[in-house]
Task: inverse folding
């Protein structure tokens, strides 16, 4: 039996099984990632793990993306945001973290929406993702 809330379908009780995704040690870091489905009917979150960045030695990229009622945008961001960073000239030269992350985020959003047609957009917004 499902309960419906404002952002999609929910389970009556949360699925608290942890899914072990990855762990490792690289770039002087020890890291681990696990996920839990929780109250949602399916896993909606995604993540990106890049313990070392070839153009920026001694730097890493870790990100978690929350689906908020659907998995499409979380998976899109997990697949594309890191590459958006790498394509930006400002990121490659890494001068005082300028311009701010918001410009890179907007670049990723532009790419996200340019890859959708109207019916896909309606579907995504209906899901809440």
Result:
């Amino acid at each position: 039996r499902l309960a419906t809330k404002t952002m999609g379908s929910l389970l009556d009780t949360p699925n608290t099984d942890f899914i072990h995704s990855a762990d490792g040690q690289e770039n002087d870091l020890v890291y681990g990632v696990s996920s839990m489905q929780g109250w949602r009917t399916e896993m909606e979150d995604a993540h990106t793990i890049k313990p070392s960045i070839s153009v920026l030695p001694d730097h890493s990229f870790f990100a978690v993306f929350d689906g908020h009622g659907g998995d499409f945008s979380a998976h899109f961001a997990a697949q594309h945001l890191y590459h958006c960073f790498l394509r930006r000239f400002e990121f490659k030269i890494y001068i005082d973290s300028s311009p701010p992350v918001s410009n890179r985020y907007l670049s990723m959003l532009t790419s996200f929406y340019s890859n959708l047609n109207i019916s896909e957009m309606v579907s995504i917004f209906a899901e809440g993702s």
User: Anything to note?
Assistant: Residues 2-127 form a domain with the Phosphatase 2c; domain 1 fold (CATH 3.60.40.10). The chain has one domain: 2-127. Residues 1-5 have pLDDT under 50 and may be disordered. Residues 9 and 20 are 24 Å apart (CA to CA).
